[in-house]
Design a protein that fits this description.
With 334 residues, the chain is of the alpha/beta class. It has helices at residues 15-26, 41-51, 60-65, 81-90, 105-108, 130-141, 174-190, 287-299, 309-328, and strands spanning 6-11, 31-37, 55-57, 71-74, 94-97, 120-122, 147-157, 196-203, 210-220, 223-230, 232-243, 247-250, 260-267, 278-285, 332-333. The chain is built from nine helices and 15 strands.
Length: 334
């Protein structure tokens, strides 16, 4: 395996980057963070000092122009994901972009303008966590029998009008922010794409964003995903996989604690209280570091990534169908 490291530039001082993703990248054996940019040079310099990053830029364009940077991490608000990702890729950088990758599938299609030799990955870090990989391994083994349904919940409470998640015109709302995770879970664990969806959506009267949504997705062959997401409910998350022989549950599926052990359970349903379920404890891991390392190895030509632009577009098509169903009141084809 190569001893080289790829050099990262961080696009903006967004909280998720500062608190989780950038420290995760810095812990990747094949990565180093060399620069950070903000439209406010003072903020960029403060962030660089905080994290020990050598260079700070007062514009995104300066970051893209730096010849010492191989890859960009883009955690900007949703409406800037595609334009800044395309700009970075055309400047010769590989791009790890936060989810959702676009405002809709049509905008996501613009990512095809990126040079084909540049890697573009939507940052669903959960797909790199050992607990998700182990869950899929158990499903593939047949221990659960025929997998029939995936039930998921992802909720939090945030009514701050200044928060980007509550600004409808730039891609705020629960479905875009967290509903995309159950969709990704089902696509990952079923290893298939849904054919149609139906949704029930309730919107905040002030923000105009979806604050509560229930979604049912038909994956064909008797497989269903149903999930609830909300931006104004008590914090909770759950992923349950129901098979003909047993049920699997990922205990903390989306915000797995960084560098701590996690657990999944497998339960045959006898007894119903789950007291005899098998519990598997996974070793301590940071899903952001796992994601950065996989990305770096792909850039170095060591191991290709299983996902790219096509996968990101497919994910947006499902989200589009959820909103189409909201408007029609019936099923929407993906």
């Amino acid at each position: 395996m190569s001893t080289k490291k790829i050099r990262w530039g961080i696009l903006s001082t967004a909280n998720i980057g500062m608190q989780k993703v950038t420290p995760g990248i810095m812990a990747s054996p094949h990565s180093e963070v060399v620069a950070i940019a903000s439209r406010d040079l003072g903020k960029a310099r403060a962030a660089a000092d905080q994290l020990g990053i050598p260079k700070a830029y007062g514009s995104y364009e300066e970051l893209f122009a730096d010849p010492d940077i191989d890859a960009i991490y883009n955690p900007l608000p949703n409406h800037l994901h595609v334009p800044m990702t395309v700009a970075a890729a055309k400047a010769g950088k590989h791009v790890l972009c936060e989810k959702p990758i676009a405002l809709n599938a049509a905008e996501a299609e613009l990512l095809r303008e990126c040079p084909p030799d540049r890697i573009v990955l939507e940052a669903f870090m959960v797909r790199f966590h050992p607990q998700w990989l182990r869950a899929r391994e158990i499903i593939r083994s047949g221990e659960l029998g025929e997998v029939r349904a995936i039930n998921a919940v992802f909720t939090y409470f945030n009514d701050d009008p200044a928060n980007v998640r509550n600004q409808a015109d730039i891609g705020g709302g629960g479905i875009m922010d967290i509903g995309c995770y159950p969709i990704t879970a089902a696509r990952f664990l079923f290893e298939a794409e849904p054919k149609r969806v139906v949704s029930l959506v309730e919107r905040d009267e002030t923000f105009g964003t979806d604050r509560l949504a229930s979604v049912l997705a038909d994956f064909g062959a008797g497989r269903q995903l149903n999930f609830v997401c909300s931006t104004q409910a008590a914090g909770h998350q759950r992923v349950q996989v129901l098979g003909s022989k047993a049920k699997l549950e990922i205990i903390i599926p989306f915000n797995a604690p960084q560098n701590e052990r996690t657990a999944i359970t497998v339960d045959t349903g006898a007894p119903f209280d789950g007291s005899l379920a098998r519990r598997e404890v996974l070793p301590a891991s940071d899903q952001y570091t796992e994601q950065a390392e996989a990305f770096a190895l792909a850039v170095l030509g060591e191991k290709p990534l299983p996902w790219g632009i096509d996968d990101a577009i497919a994910s947006m098509r499902v989200i589009d169908a959820v909103f189409a169903s909201e408007k029609s009141g019936g099923w929407a084809t993906v």
